[in-house]
Structure formats: structure tokens, C-alpha cells
Amino acid sequence: MSRTLYFVAYDVRHPTRLRKALRVLKDYASGGQKSAFECYLSAGEKNELLERICDVLDLTIDAFVLPAESIINDIPTGISPVFADRDFSFRSISNGSIFRPPQC
User: Fold this and answer.
1) How many CA atoms lie within 13 A of 94 on its CB side?
2) Four-point Cα dihedral 23, 25, 28, 33, nearest 10
3) Secondary structure of 35-62 in the HEC alphabet?
4) What is the pLDDT of residues 18-52, one digit of tens each?
5) Residue spans per domain, the chain
6) Helix (H, G, I), strand (E, B), or coil: what is residue 5?
7) Which member of 31, 45, 82, 103 lies 3.0 to 4.6 Å from 38 by CB, making a disulfide possible if both were Cys?
8) Could you confirm whether domain 4-71 is CATH 3.30.70.240?
9) Segment among 50-54, 57-61, 67-71, 86-90 with least mean pLDDT
10) Bridge pairing between strands 63-65 and 4-11
11) What integer is the mean pLDDT of 75-95?
């Protein structure tokens, strides 16, 4: 079974839903902090995660972000380039998309 690395994040407004969402994500996460997690998921696990998180979140006020595809190629490795303004650097992940499951 092949697994792919995804970065998953959420913003949950209610403490009860927040605790439930944390429990769901911890079942799939290999690492993370606060509301952002690294998850190695197979296609089946990704679908299962989406189903479980839909049961927990209220997507009218909560946010859940799971890229449509892995963003492994955007993970910075090695030495970063030198920026003109050395006091500030910013790394954005631009090819991810917000996934809101249509069945929710």
C-alpha cells in the first residue's frame, strides 16, 4: 500500500469540536503541532479521514484544509536561496487547494 505525505490543517471554533477533530487527526498524523499535521495517507485512508472529519466539523464556521494532491515537492530542503531582504523570508505552498468534501 502506497502512502503519500499531506499537510492537513484545521481551524475549529468550538472547544468540543476542536477536541474531537484533534482525536481524529491524531489517528492519521505522523507529526504536527496545534492545528497542522503531517499525514502519510493511502487513498483509502484519505477518504476515511475526510468522512470522519465531516462528522465532527461544522463546515459553515469551521475550516479544514487538505490539499487535493501531495505537496511533497514544495517542501524546502537543503539551503534556501538568499533573499534581497535578509531580515525577512517567506515560503508559500501555492499548489495546494482547499478541499471541502461535497457530501458534508
Assistant:
1) 3
2) -110
3) CEEEEEECHHHHHHHHHHHHHHCCCCCC
4) 999 999 999 999 888 888 999 999 989 999 999 99
5) 4-71
6) strand
7) 31
8) yes
9) 86-90
10) antiparallel
11) 49
